[in-house]
UniProtKB/TrEMBL annotation:
<keyword id="KW-1133">Transmembrane helix</keyword>
<dbReference type="InterPro" id="IPR021354">
    <property type="entry name" value="DUF2975"/>
</dbReference>
<protein>
    <recommendedName>
        <fullName>DUF2975 domain-containing protein</fullName>
    </recommendedName>
</protein>
<feature type="transmembrane region" description="Helical">
    <location>
        <begin position="187"/>
        <end position="208"/>
    </location>
</feature>
<feature type="transmembrane region" description="Helical">
    <location>
        <begin position="7"/>
        <end position="27"/>
    </location>
</feature>
<keyword id="KW-0812">Transmembrane</keyword>
<feature type="transmembrane region" description="Helical">
    <location>
        <begin position="103"/>
        <end position="128"/>
    </location>
</feature>
<dbReference type="Pfam" id="PF11188">
    <property type="entry name" value="DUF2975"/>
</dbReference>
<keyword id="KW-0472">Membrane</keyword>
<feature type="transmembrane region" description="Helical">
    <location>
        <begin position="149"/>
        <end position="167"/>
    </location>
</feature>
Length: 218
């Protein structure tokens, strides 16, 4: 039984670890690209500005009840254009974010990263405690509650960042026949894991209270 539990814990740990690595990777790539473009003398001012203003946008057709494939793309295999609809694209638009907006976005990104790393540390401590057969105690209840709160904070940070980007792009960019969407910009994995951790924590807490009451009545 413990082996099965360890396997499930490792799977969850991989999910949390992936979130950390994904955030680290994209932040690192963004910093690296910015430094390289800044020091590359072959890139003119216009191209550097275009690279700075890159935005990823999600699109959905406005008339979902009518013709969805309102565009076309060239199919190299058949040598002809085929009906298509855009779902995601990278564009260069100047959203003109204020200095305050940039600072807030950066702080939210740091908060998200710290929350995920802290959550991974708590989860590792929880696994170690379980393997020592020290499972049902108030320390693990607190760990699970903190883990749940941290994962929900991580989701909130991701959602707010996506909404901020969605709002700023929506003010300066639109595509004929499409509406901007946040559908694929936010993943609910951390939210589901966070709520699950809080539920398990409360189950542990109820079990511990019942055990303490039974010990007092004996």
């Amino acid at each position: 039984m413990k082996r099965r539990l360890n396997i499930l814990c490792v799977i969850v740990l991989f999910v949390l670890g992936y979130s950390v690595l994904e955030t680290t990777y994209y932040v690192g790539m963004g910093i690296k690209a910015g430094i390289e473009k800044g020091f590359d003398s072959k890139i003119d001012v216009k191209e550097r500005e275009e690279m700075t203003n890159l935005q990823v946008v999600q699109l959905v057709p406005k008339d979902l009840g009518g013709a969805i494939l309102i565009d076309s793309v060239y199919n190299e295999k058949s040598g002809e254009y085929v009906p298509a609809a855009y779902g995601q694209m990278i564009v260069s638009v100047n959203t003109q974010p204020s200095v305050l907006s940039r600072i807030i976005s950066f702080l939210i990104l740091i908060a998200d990263y710290v929350a995920i790393v802290w959550a991974v540390v708590l989860f590792i401590r929880l696994i170690v405690s379980i393997n020592k057969s020290d499972i049902f105690n108030w320390k693990n209840v607190r760990r699970l509650r903190r883990l749940g709160v941290l994962l929900i904070i991580s989701f909130a940070c991701t959602f707010f960042t996506a909404f901020l980007s969605f709002y700023n792009v929506g003010k300066v960019f639109s595509v004929t026949g499409y509406s901007l969407s946040m559908a694929d910009m936010v993943h609910i994995t951390s939210l589901v894991l966070g709520l699950s951790a809080l539920i398990v924590a409360e189950v542990f807490a109820i079990g511990l209270r019942m055990k303490e009451e039974q010990d007092l009545t004996i």
